[in-house]
Amino acid sequence: MKAQPQLASMIKNQSFDGFLLVRAATQRTSSNGSKYLDMTLCDISGEVNAKMWDGQTPAPAPAQVLRVRGVMLEYNGRPQLRVDKMRPAAEGDDYDMAVLAPCAPEPAGDMMDFILNRADAIVDRELKALVLKRLEEAGDRLLYYPAASKLHHAERSGLLHHTSTMLRTAKAVCEIYPFLDADLLAAGVILHDLCKLDELNADEIGMASDYTREGQLLGHLVMGVAALDRCARELNVRDELKVMLEHMILSHHDLPEYGSPRRPMFPEAEVLHTLDVLDARMFEMRRELAMVKPGGFTERIWSLERKLYRRKEAPVRPESAEESGVE
Known about the structure:
This protein is of the alpha+beta class. It has helices at 108-120, 125-138, 158-176, 182-191, 196-199, 213-217, 220-235, 239-251, 267-289, 321-324, and strands spanning 15-29, 35-43, 46-52, 65-75, 78-88, 200-202, 208-211.
């Protein structure tokens, strides 16, 4: 495969000749009446807004691989790729999907094993059976599904990435606050977003093209409560445990404007909400800061309602306990 520059490392006026994935593409009309393509193209390093000023070219479909030639420019301080030529990838083209699709930093199988092992370690038999049943129902789609269409963990295996990271953080939090029910919190983490599998239309590349009908009309919180209620009844799970888990799913967005009709009403539900927000924001901040130079600011990020600053100096990290003076 011919080496091609990664989008995140490209500089102004650098030429690009290679393959990219389409996240979104729309034909638009400029103020002078001419048509152009407004696209979001991506590789594993990130995504970039792209413009093609040839109004005769139809908009490519999401998740399509394109052969692209163009030049990296800037618009309002942000990278923008000017596409001069493009075509759909053809059979026999030499490209590697592994360098095109944004994906989780760990292998999907490893993250799945970590989640299954944590579920299998739950002491309460009814709780364990319920979590394992929901994971079994999720099936192989968990291996590639993203956690969102555009925002946090919108990547291949993003739902596994989000869940496994939250599980690790939950373990640390429970060590600091030992009064928490660690198994109940872990169950809430595993279950809280599982119905994103039915909320989003996603392909095996890990790209979500749209919401399903149920996703639009109900959303993953309501769908998650319904699925949990069904499984709990089939397994004859005791009522209090069932209702607490349902509350954790229903309240993990915290506020009505974000979809939750109830705010968290016990500690494990509050921690679940906090972990969800923390993991989502850290993912978005890391992604956005990777696209600006040290000492610079991002554009205002609508999901975070603010700009971000990227520090100039890298943090000093000890290479070993001996170097840091820790014994």
